[in-house]
Amino acid sequence: MEESKFEVNQTQISKKTTNTVQLEKIILYVALGIGAIASLFPFYWMFISATHSSGEIFSFPPKLLPGDNLITNIVNLNQQIGLGRVIFNSLFVTITFTIGNIIISSMAGYAFAKFKFKGRDILFFIVLITLMLPPQAKLIPLFDMMAKLDWVNSYKAVILPNLAYAFGIFLMRQNMLKVPTDLIDAARIDGCGEFKIFWKVVLPTMRPALAALGIYMFMFQWSRFMWPLVVLSSAKMKTIPVALSGLMGLSRIDYGQILVGASISTLPILITFLLLQKQFISGILSGSVKG
């Protein structure tokens, strides 16, 4: 009799536990759903509003379905800023910067991680210190340097100043520490030079970290506004963020054009991250623990 009561109590406890777990899952999924909607709705509203005119954007109740003004907004935007040239400028600057930064950061990270030389730790500390400098504090010295080099209003002035970015060097150095030193020594014994070891042995093991660095630097350069605004003066050299800022006129603002431009500016970042998000997360986490 007592055993049967014990079994009944165990069954009831098991059912209560199961119900509690299911309730917790439901609450968790509801919370995640609300968070996802809150995160994605601004993007949805931006893309939808890009298909409406300014008057329709601010109408009440708000329009949450696509309109028929997308082509008109694109044509008007192209007339205002020269959309093709602006997109080319942003793509050229961003892709060139990203490739150059990956090469320089990976080589510098490899040197800091695997070469022992006098002052290595002090030099690496100085590199990290540059991350603490406010970008605004560097604007005037950088502009003065670009003016003396006669690089103002050129691609070089936008690309080169941050090509050896401290965060990229730090990220690659942390990942390079995980490469076994015995593997590098074995390659040296086999007759490989340092440059060949770097390209043929070390870099192939760094693909997740390189993908993470590439995504980060692409997003960093694509969305930069202040420095290109300062150093680029002519309309034919402007990038998308700088060109869009010129649409904010004092008399009349066409929000349809602005939201089309914002949508075009956002799409490359969204697509790049969605396609490579696994590599990005893996690359960021792989350098968080030394071992």
TrEMBL record:
GO terms for cellular component: plasma membrane. It is found in: Cell membrane. PROSITE patterns: ABC_TM1 (PS50928). The chain crosses the membrane at residues 26-47, 86-110, 122-143, 155-172, 255-276. GO terms for biological process: transmembrane transport. CDD domains: TM_PBP2. It holds the Pfam family BPD_transp_1. Residues 87-276 form the ABC transmembrane type-1 domain. Keywords: Cell membrane, Membrane, Sugar transport, Transmembrane, Transmembrane helix, Transport. It is a multi-pass membrane protein. InterPro entries: MetI-like (IPR000515), MetI-like_sf (IPR035906). Belongs to the binding-protein-dependent transport system permease family. This is ABC-type sugar transport system, permease component. It comes from Halobacteroides halobius (strain ATCC 35273 / DSM 5150 / MD-1).
